[in-house]
Specification:
Distance between the termini: 10 Å
Number of domains: 2
Number of strands: 8
Largest sheet: 6 strands, parallel
Strand order of the largest sheet: 5-4-1-6-7-8
Structural class: alpha/beta
Order of helices and strands: EEHHHHEHEHEHEHEEH
CATH architecture of the largest domain: 3-Layer(aba) Sandwich
CATH superfamily of the largest domain: HAD superfamily/HAD-like
Radius of gyration: 17 Å
Helix content: 40-55%
Shape: globular
Length: about 220
């Protein structure tokens, strides 16, 4: 059996509505205009510090506000789960893969606290044997260190990394690991422009991809 590491936001969950709601509260406190969902999705992928930096730049706010706004964002973000949804088929797919004996992990740029909060919210905490967030190490994706650390925590075996974004594709490439691209998430580039071994738009297809990858 193999090791399957998943990204989280834009891969297993659509969290943009919650991120938007939290970000807009932080912006409102600075008297700035709110983000729409498309803009929010364009800011996601490199972790909360970069997201807040992009919010500040997009609204022409003073960059010196970053620390204050990030602290506020993280405080609100820890429990922001009510607007987040699993992508269709995710729960059944994870159950199938775990039932086949694969060891599952999470490697995300989302901070650890909200990562564990959303996994608890969906009853998925026990599905994952290793979880690395954006603040687990000094490095964040696309640095390969978090992904490789997650793989080491899962043990020995063939590996597949599953993600949705340009950041995930680059992370897998740097780690020299095969990558399965979920095409319905938050990617910015065209599918053809992202290095990947597999691409899918429906989680019912992932078990077959895993079987082919690990054959």
């Amino acid at each position: 059996m193999g090791l399957i590491v998943f990204d989280l936001d834009g891969t297993l969950i659509d969290s943009a509505p919650d991120i938007r709601a939290v970000g807009n509260r932080v912006l409102a406190e600075q008297g700035a205009a709110p983000m729409d969902l498309a803009e929010t999705r364009s800011f996601i992928g490199n972790g909360a510090p970069v997201l807040v930096q992009r919010m500040i730049a997009a609204r022409g706010l003073d960059p010196s506000l970053h620390a204050t706004m990030l602290t506020r964002f993280l405080a609100l973000y820890e429990k922001a789960v009510e607007l987040t949804v699993l992508y269709p088929g995710v729960a059944d797919c994870l159950e199938t893969l775990a039932g086949q004996g694969h060891r599952l992990g999470i490697c995300t740029n989302k901070p650890e606290a909200p990562t564990h909060a959303v996994l608890r919210h969906f009853g998925l905490s026990d599905r994952f044997l290793a979880v690395l967030g954006g603040d687990s190490l000094k490095q964040r994706k696309p640095d390969s260190a978090p992904l490789l650390a997650c793989v080491r925590a899962l043990g020995e075996g063939p590996v597949l990394y599953v993600g949705d974004s340009d950041v995930d594709a680059e992370t897998a490439e740097r780690a020299a690991l095969p990558f399965a691209l979920f095409t319905e998430g938050y990617r910015k580039a065209a599918v053809k422009d992202l290095p990947h071994a597999h691409a899918f738009d429906d989680f019912t297809a992932l078990p077959d991809i895993v079987a082919r990858q690990f054959a």
